[in-house]
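Backbone description:
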Amino acid sequence: MIHYEYPLSERIRTLLRLEDLFDRFDAYAESPDSHAHHAALLTLFEMSEVAARADLKSDLLQELDRQKAVLTALRGNPHVQDTTLEQVLAAIEAAHQGIYHLPGKVGQHLRDDEWLMAIKQRAAIPGGMCEFDLPAYHHWLHRPAEERMRQLQHWLAPFSSIRAAVDIVLGLLRDSGQPEWQQVSNGNYQRMLESRNPQLIRVTLVDNLPCVPEISANKYMLNIRFIQAGPGQVRTCTDQTIDFDLTFCTL
């Protein structure tokens, strides 16, 4: 199955972008290849830019406080497993404290490093990171893979509390919805949202279906147009019946 997600607020859009960057960094950093470590460093630069939003820390702190209050009220509820609840509350508290004590803007430690900023500046130029442009960086890429891995994890470490908060908030958001089975035969799906006010819409399809959902939505209407997944001219998938799961997620 493949999940396609569509955020309906800038805040959730930012969290999804950060989640994707964290996952991408892990994939690159785990490889011993120098080209993968180059990609990991560029991903760190992207991460710092996305996370530098002035209101990111305050948004996450407020959301963690809100979720902590909601979940604390569930203590003693016979339908809630106490051990799991306490684990989630402990994770929320740890993430909250980490963000609260995080100085300055997220990613400031990267911006304070002149060596890294020289690399970032050259990265904005197409083909601008050759060895004759950045000999010191060329030297770093030839250091032992284990040494580069340690350095990459050192640069990632200050993002840990942000990452924990992103995982918690998105995890709770995704768990808030119940999938609804839907079917279309003309390639288009429309639905009034009425009073749902979702923050995230998820469309789940089998992975061998040659169509992908093109989602557009506002607080009143949801429209999904299923289009051909392959290259070439974009065509609506009108020649087959499409079954999918639709999930509305709201914190």
The mean pLDDT is 89. The radius of gyration is 22 Å. The CA atoms of residues 203 and 231 lie 21 Å apart. The beta strands are 2-7, 180-184, 188-192, 200-205, 211-217, 221-228, 242-249.
